[in-house]
Structures are given as structure tokens and as C-alpha cells.
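Handover notes (outgoing to incoming on-call)

Open items:
1. Tetratricopeptide repeat domain 4: sequence verified, structure written out, both below. Nothing else pending on this one.
2. Nothing else urgent.
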Amino acid sequence: MAQSDSDDGMDEFMEKFKTQKYKNALNESNWEEEFEKVPMFMKTAPEEIDPLKNPDLACIQSIIHDDDRPPEEQAKSLKDEGNEYFKEKNYKKAIVAYTEGLKKNCSDSDLNAILYTNRAAAHFYLGNMRSALNDATAARKLKSDHIKAIIRGAQCCMELHNYAEALQWCDEGLRILPTEKKLQELRAKADKQKRAAERDARKAKAKVKKERTDRDALLTAVKERGIKLMPGQRQHRSSDSEEDDGAEGSAADMAELNLDGFSTQEATGAKVYLDEQGVLHWPVLFLYPEYRQTDFISAFCENSSFIDHLTVMFGEELPPWDTDKKYCPQNLQLFIEDHEKGHIYEVDVTKSLLSVLQHTRCSVKQGTPSFIILVKDSPFCKQFLSDEKVHLLK
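Tetratricopeptide repeat domain 4 C-alpha cells:
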């Protein structure tokens, strides 16, 4: 069997001992003295250690007695260690090293300022903007003209979208060093972003104000017409508060709650709105229980009659689900449901939407008036109405 390369090498190495003695071997005559030079076998350590004569022992001693070095020396070593980690983009270990350096509490304020600034940089690249800003601030307290700390503080403020504070950092830095290009660029960017943010804030405030004005006008219009609103999906108030306010207060509160979230459950999200002429337009839902179908009108003018819409919806082209072709405008009956008593009332199709919504037994639920459509005298219509107490709406 052939021997491996490592075996051949070992044989060659061992062959040398037949012709020459191992240079670093212990001498038989003074092996005890030689053992005393090995740190592991020393019985007593020398009072003074020469790093040139005993490098291994000096290295071990520096590790064991590191705390005996001045705090400034220890902090500087940890700063250098952190810098090496930073160059390797190992920012977490860099933060640990810089933190240990700060814990030495050395009296060198410039060194501490550098440790804070370097740790701020590591935090910055990890995305810890608030921690980075805190470190930049701490560095400036120790060294007010530390440009690197000022630049880092301005950068953090930019990332945190605090443009006014970023401008302050830049202005303070430029007073110290007016030619600093990085601060000039940061200041220009911060000023631009601050103006844009203020403009957006003004627009948002104006939008909120307009929405509030429109909502109040809509609420007033609904109340003036005497239209009854039913609670939507919002939570009711506690019974105690209802008892305190009285029935009148509860009714007004109910209307206000529903208008705040006054939208249909349909995917369109249509809402009742008041046009420039002061006319209400409602999202309206038509239900066809015979075929389990629905129609949705996103903006039904309150002054329009039902027959106007039915004529368009069931004109020349009937819906595909009406296989018997019986849903013609002249054959249709409309009904509303009394949500409180469970009764249904027939609606005169020639009446306007407003006149129907103003009836005492009519109510709007979840912002969308809904109406049931049946074919007059059809078997399904007779069956559907046989279980209900039907009233003609007058």
C-alpha cells in the first residue's frame, strides 16, 4: 500500500535525527533550567520581565494584568479594536468595543468624544438612529467643535425626519468650519425637506378642516330633512351615559356617530354627499330576493324618483339572471323594511327618494338606503309577502 504524502514527510523529518540533533531540544544537562523558562512549568516568576527574553511570559502578563494599565491606555486599545471591527463592517462588535472603552472612564475627554462618535457611526449603519443621535450629542458635550460628531448628528436628524433640528446641527457646525462641504450639502437638503414637510402639513391641515366642514354641512342637511339613521358597526355608548343624556341626546349622538363612518359596505366605498346646490346624493342598494341578486347605485339624487332608475335598469335589456323576462318596470313593486319592528312597507315607485326617506317608518342603515324589488303578483312575491305584514307607504 502506498504511503500518503504526510507520512512521507514525517519519515523524512524523523530521518534527520539520525544525522543531526534537534536544535530546540532540551539539553540533558540543563533541562530543569530550560523548563523554568516555559511559563507553564515555572516555579517562580521573575521580578522583572524582559519582553525580548521572555515574550511568551510578557504576553500572558499583559493579559492577566490588563486592568493594571492606565484607563486611557485601555480605552485607546478598545477604540483601536472597535475600529478594526468597524472596518470589517462588524458594527455590533464595534459597538461592544467602544462601549467597553467608555466604561474605563478615562480622563481624556477627546478620546471619549472619539469613542462616542465612533459608536454613533456604528449605530447609524445598523439603523439605530436614536442611539446614534444620543452618542453624537454626548460627543459634542465633551468636545463642542467635534465636526465628525456634528455631521453624524445632522445625518441622524435627517433620517429621523427632524429637519429643523438637522438645520441647527448644520448651522452650529458651519459656524465652526464654514467650508465643510458635507455640512453645506446636508443643510441644503434639510432646508428643502423642511419646506416640503411644512407645505404637506399645511395641505393636510386644510384637508382636515375641509372634511370637517363638509361633514358638519352633511350632518346638518340630514338632520334638517328629518332622515332617521340607524347605528352602523360602531360601538354603542354605555347604558349609563344614555340615561344621563336623555332620548334626545342619544338620537343626536346616533346620527353623528353614523355620519363619521357613513359609508356603504359595498366595495366602491361610496358615501352620501352634498353637492354645491345643497342636494343630497345617496348610495342605494336594490335587493332581488327571488334570484339572490343586487344592484348598487352609487349616487341616487334625492329628488329623483324610483321609476326613473327602474326604467333605465330594466329598459330594453333585462338582466341575464331574469330568464323569464318578467322584471319590467311596470311589473315591479318596491318595499322598505322597518328595522325596528320587522315589518315591510310598499313604496310608490313614482315618489322621490327624499319623500320615502322622510317617512317615519323608514330608516337608513350603515349609510345606505336599501329597497326590496319583487315582481307584482308573481308566485314568489305572494309567498314572500305571505309571512309579512305589508303596509302601503303613504
